[in-house]
Specification:
Elements: H1 2-20, E1 22-27, E2 30-34, E3 41-51, E4 55-69, E5 73-86, E6 93-104, E7 112-124, E8 128-131, E9 135-142
Length: 143
């Protein structure tokens, strides 16, 4: 019964994602979910995790504006809010940043993308760190 319920929920989720024009992918920052590559204002959600000698989960949400929206390339900037939660640290961190990214579409129809992103990131707990992270990710758009 659980197998059928899971399969049914997966089919409904994929059909909904297809209608909502959502992209799913993986990259150096874990898994990602992106709204349509055609919209000028987009959401990008990411979830990174590590399980080893200690555990760490890094959820993140971005609201970005595309200032270039061409057939094979998008460029965007925006705001980022995230956290680093884990048992390998004395405390958890809050991340606030300004991402700047370029997304390439090697195939027609904007179904597959390769994105590179960087920007400024402020990581705060008891101490405050400012650094420039970099991300590379692949995304497949369900539409």
């Amino acid at each position: 019964m659980k197998k059928y319920l899971f399969t049914m929920l997966l089919i409904v989720a994929l059909a909904t994602a297809r209608q909502a024009q959502i992209g799913l992918g993986m990259g150096s920052s874990g898994i990602n979910v992106k709204t349509s590559a055609e919209n000028d204002l987009r959401f990008i959600g990411r979830l990174d995790f590590f399980i080893g000698g200690f555990s760490r989960v890094t959820p993140e949400i971005n609201l970005v504006h595309q200032f270039v929206n061409e057939s094979q390339i998008n460029a965007y900037f925006g705001g980022k809010l995230g956290a680093v939660i884990g048992d390998g640290f004395d405390e958890d961190f809050i991340n606030i940043g300004v991402p700047l990214g370029i997304e390439f579409f090697p195939l027609e129809g904007k179904k597959l993308s390769v994105a590179v992103e960087s920007g400024l990131l402020l990581q705060a707990s008891e101490d405050i760190f400012l650094y420039i992270p970099s991300i590379v990710e692949f995304t497949f758009y369900l539409r």
